[in-house]
Specification:
Umud Fragment, subunit A; alpha+beta; 3 helices
């Protein structure tokens, strides 16, 4: 019995250490349908258009994501997990007028849209995802460019 407990504690410690090393190395796992499932690495530099980016939601949209269960607990200051999205627009770009915006989520709850129909102002970015059910810039609007961390796909798996 004592050997089983020691073995279990050792196995748990090994998994926890591997997770910590993975995290400290800047590696993140995406299991959501918003973008391809896989392992992404945080990279230095400002993300450009078409780059993957990691960001933390703040304010009223972080609260909405928490209340509705769109995001699980995580490492962001809001207590939620970071989002992984693609940078679709940068300062000076026109916001596409043909974006599909759902009026209700999968449970029929009204969806906000804080996305203006204009040109992206200095210091802001539009982040989107390919998945039509993604909670992204179509709903929470533009985000500060300085809040984005560039990421690249390391290993993608397809179902």
């Amino acid at each position: 019995m004592n050997a089983i407990l020691r073995g279990s504690a050792l196995a748990f410690s090994g998994v926890a250490l591997a997770f910590l090393l993975f995290w400290c190395a800047g590696l993140r796992v995406n299991l959501t349908p918003s973008l391809p499932k896989g392992i992404y690495a945080l990279c230095p530099g400002t993300p450009g258009k078409g780059d993957f980016a990691v960001l933390c939601l703040e304010g009223e949209f972080a609260e909405l994501a928490r209340e509705r269960g769109y995001l699980q607990a995580g490492s962001c200051p809001s207590g939620l997990r970071p989002l992984l999205k693609m940078v679709a627009g940068l300062p000076g770009d026109a916001i596409p007028g043909n974006l599909f915006i759902r009026h209700a989520d999968s449970l029929g709850r009204s969806m906000p849209s804080a996305l203006p129909e204009s040109v992206i102002p200095p210091g802001m970015a539009l982040v989107l995802a390919d998945h039509s059910g993604s909670f992204d810039g179509r709903y929470f609007g533009l985000v500060p460019l300085e809040s984005l961390r560039r990421a690249k796909a390391v290993w993608i798996w397809k179902p």
